[in-house]
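Data availability excerpt. The first of two example chains:
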Amino acid sequence: MFEVDLPAFEAMVAEAVEGLPEEFRERLQNLEFAVEERARPDDYARASEPVRGTLLGVYRGVPLPRRGQGYHMALPDRIVVFRAPLQQLARDEADLRARVRHVVRHEVAHHFGISDARLREIDAY
């Protein structure tokens, strides 16, 4: 287990977002990133597949491919990274930073409409 305070954890999330390839970063539309301690029950229900274990992050929104003509004036979608379980898994700061980066990339993939099944197919897990 490795813990950091909330500002340090939020900085890791911001660093992970800034580290995304530019061609993806510039296509992040109507999307915000947040940190919460743990997942809510509805986050588990929102998961595209049954969650085995602890949820580390979640995409709360409408993926880009599903946004039609009626999608306008909507509140921003959110990618939420859950601090407590990630810290529980982390061995040290570098490990925590890598785990945060992985979760951010995974949830950004959902923003682009990529399913968990497809992420497994392309060995992105």
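And the second chain:
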Amino acid sequence: MTLGFAVGVLRETGLLEGVMRAAVVALILLTGGALAGCAQKQAAEPVAATPVAAPLQATPGLKANERLQLAIRSLQNGDTERAHVELTAFVAEQPRNRVGTGLLAQIETPIETYYPRDSFPLTLKSGESLSTVAQTYLGDPLQFYALARYNQIQNPSRVTAGQNIRVPKTPAAIAALAKGPAAAAPARAEAVAPSASSVDTATDPLPPAPSMDDPRRAAVQGR
């Protein structure tokens, strides 16, 4: 019996549609069973857990002054996470130190609260940095980091001559601006000479002296 003859017989007897429906049902059942098997296999396979990075820890074995200097260097290079960890450890050790608490406040305080909204423009000249601008207009070179945040500068050490920044109109900045360009010349680091008493560790040796306009030199005044 040929396939065509068999199909003709089934059509004449009215059985063709029933056979086709049965074939379709069987195909659906086979397909559903295969998919269910695949799903069970996938569910049985363990999902690899995403590794969780260990939280950053303060550098062990540092003296208070060394930890403070590391925090300032980290802020200068835009490593806020490292600076925050080190400053938190430093302030836990030296809770009354105004340098440490002041730097920590620069990180944690919303910048719109830390500085007034109003500002005036300033173009950096050769030899100027955020720390010298902060010393001149804000009265504290260590406010270089807050000034960087105010200007959305990620790395405070990477500013260049000719770069335009905004200086917040604090009372100190307004007073410096009113005195004119001569009075507002970049302050040099001689005005902030180091003293170990700033971190309440008079017996600790200071690290090598920073460059003349390096804000770390001001860390020793204990503001």
